[in-house]
TrEMBL record:
Protein biosynthesis recorded as keyword: no
Protein name: Disease resistance N-terminal domain-containing protein
GO terms of biological process kind: defense response
Organism phylogeny: Eukaryota, Viridiplantae, Streptophyta, Embryophyta, Tracheophyta
Domain called Disease resistance N-terminal: residue spans: 7-63
Amino acid sequence: MQVVTGAMGSLLPKLGQLLMEEYNLQKNAKKGVESLIEEMKSMDAALCKVAEVPRHQLDEQVKL
């Protein structure tokens, strides 16, 4: 029984550390996704403005 409790004693802190790392990874991923959503909203707004301009009046870079 001491072998089992000894093994559990060393595994539990490692498991706790892994869980914390996974939590931090998910938290960072959430921030990244939120950032991408905001970026896409900005891009959509810019594209909507460009769509209102007649093609012959567009800057050459915008036409690309």
